[in-house]
Specification:
The protein has a single domain, classed as Hypothetical protein (Metal Transport, Frataxin, Chain A, 2-Layer Sandwich), CATH 3.30.920.30. 37% of the residues lie in helices and 26% in strands. It is of the alpha+beta class and 76 residues long. It has three helices and three strands, in the order αβββαα. Helix 1 packs across helix 3. The protein is globular, with a radius of gyration of 11 Å.
Length: 76
């Protein structure tokens, strides 16, 4: 299975949207996502030309209640 290395922020956001998360807004360079029934708020950094770091992405995936494998299926 693929890793979480070099994933693009815009595609990461789309993957979370496929999982039912909605964009709540953006403050600076961070997009915030919420989901009804989940009290967590996901915060995805969108820095031009920079992929999301793996540790941060793993944390956001866990907050979303997904496994890495489930997330990668949504990312494709």
């Amino acid at each position: 299975m693929s890793s979480l290395h070099n994933l693009k922020p815009d595609r990461v956001i789309k993957a979370f949207e496929r999982a039912g998360w909605k964009i709540k807004g953006q403050r600076g360079s961070h997009v915030k996502l919420t989901k009804e029934g989940n009290m967590n708020i996901l915060s995805i950094p969108v820095h031009k030309g920079k992929p999301i770091k793996q540790g941060l992405l793993r944390d956001q995936i866990a907050k979303a209640g997904l496994t890495v494998e489930e997330f990668l299926k949504l990312y494709k």
